Amino acid sequence: MHSPISLFLIDDHTIFSQSFCAYVSSHPDFSWKGSAKGDGRVVQEVLRLNPQVLLLDFHLGSFNGFYLLQQLRDKGFSQFVILLTMNREKRIRDAARHHGANGFVTKEVDGEELLAGIIQLVTNEVDFLELLGNADTPVVSPYDLTPQEKLIAELVCSGLNTEEIAHKLEISIHTVHTHRRRILVKTDAENFMQVCQKLS
Question: Residue 60: exposed, middle, or buried by beta-carbon count in 10 A (0-12, 13-18, 19+)?
Fold first, then answer.
């Protein structure tokens, strides 16, 4: 490996973005180009920076990652794009290929496995990177939050309200309220401002 592989992340979850940035920055084979939320301005930012590998979250605000991927490809972005998601459905994996992604990775995947896979993709050892992780492997989370509670905490900290989270995750508002109460209890926090500070 000669020059470091440049990475850029599009993800609406602030906690994930910050932790992944810190993780990647400690690896000499990679160069961190930054991260952004999935809004209309990010397409120009990606085109300007032209990272070798773009990690793209599937669930982005009011649209999915396929929309941004199409926008980027239409504007000539020809670098590697890897779709990140909590969703393991085969139809989405197949759609990722159809829309021009170069990989499909679930967020349960170990960081070292992901970076090793990116190197394989960039060096043409594989033509499509698919890492599904192990759904049965418990995800270590501070304060013993479940994966769903951790995701909801990240969404709250990224600025989404209860109704938006319910819509995004396709669950009821009542279920979101229940998770929010449990998160407050587990983190021993009085409000979500404190939760976000503790999880940052």
Answer: buried
Question: Hey, where are the domains in the chain?
Answer: 5-131, 142-199
Which CATH architecture best describes the domain 142-199?
Answer: Orthogonal Bundle (1.10)
Give the other-Cβ count within 10 Å of 189's Cβ: 18
Express each pLDDT in 67-103 by its tens digit: 889 999 999 999 999 998 877 778 788 888 888 999 9
Give the model confidence (pLDDT) of 144-194 as tens digits: 888 888 889 888 888 889 999 998 888 999 999 999 999 998 888 889 888
**Tell me: domain 5-131, CATH 3.30.420.40, correct?**
no
